[in-house]
């Protein structure tokens, strides 16, 4: 319980325990069990603490205590001290929404207050992960840049641009891959073929007034990344029909 550090990022991992019956489950898999308490906070069973949102997108475990040596900055609310976000699940859409009691960007006192955040819908989504480049990929890039370009120069035709997705998304421009607006993901950005099992989970924002229209622009993969299945745990085996 107490070995979960404040700020631990929440990530996705394939379920390690298939049984939904409490007495059959391995207690070591409780780190994959989450629940929404009566106040609407998302909580981790293994940590025994609520989940907060950092930088308006990253889910992190927080450790609540009555006494702290670090004074909370003022004014309230701020990034250190603020009401916990509330989570809700829609059985109709399969989406998990996050509701904030104040601006999740927590602007400082020197900034003019804004109500723009109130017109946004915050949704939980997983992030696709592309497998790392291989020697073959690098060799293909070498051939394209060192052979195709000279031939194109001799023939007078323009060589096609060879910008790689990892160069585009890894460069210090605009957005990183896990910060892309879902509606604007290219086919390359949809690739999710990394053999590593872990996936990041993030909160994306959608203008509430335009959500229905933007949902129509989502690819099936992007839509599925926003869909979640709630599996309640049971104290006994479900009765089988006689």
Write up this protein.
This protein has a domain of 148 residues. Helix content is 17%, strand content 17%.
Describe the secondary structure blueprint for this structure.
Blueprint lengths: L10 E2 L21 E3 L5 E3 L4 E6 L3 E4 L24 E4 L6 E4 L20 E7 L8 H21 L9 H6 L28 E9 L3 H7 L2 H6 L17
Antiparallel strand pairs: 1-9, 2-3, 3-4, 4-5, 6-7, 7-8, 8-9
- What strand line-up does the widest sheet have? 1-9-8-7-6
- Count of helical stretches: 4
What is the quaternary state of this protein?
A: single chain
Fraction in beta strands: 15-25%
Q: Which radius of gyration do the C-alpha atoms yield? A: 23 Å
How many strands, what sense, and barrel or not for the largest sheet?
Answer: 5 strands, antiparallel
Rough outline: globular
Give the uncertain stretches in residue-range form: 63-69, 165-180
Straight-line N-to-C gap: 42 Å
Mean of pLDDT = 77
Number of strands: 9
- The helicity comes to 10-25%
Structural class: alpha+beta
User: What is the helix/strand order?
Assistant: EEEEEEEEHHEHH
Please give a quick description of this structure.
With 242 residues, the chain is an alpha+beta fold. The chain has a domain at 11-129 and 197-225. The chain contains four helices and nine strands, in the order ββββββββααβαα.
List the main descriptive attributes of the protein structure presented here.
single chain; 242 residues; alpha+beta; 5-stranded antiparallel beta sheet; 4-stranded antiparallel beta sheet; 4 helices; 9 strands; 17% helix
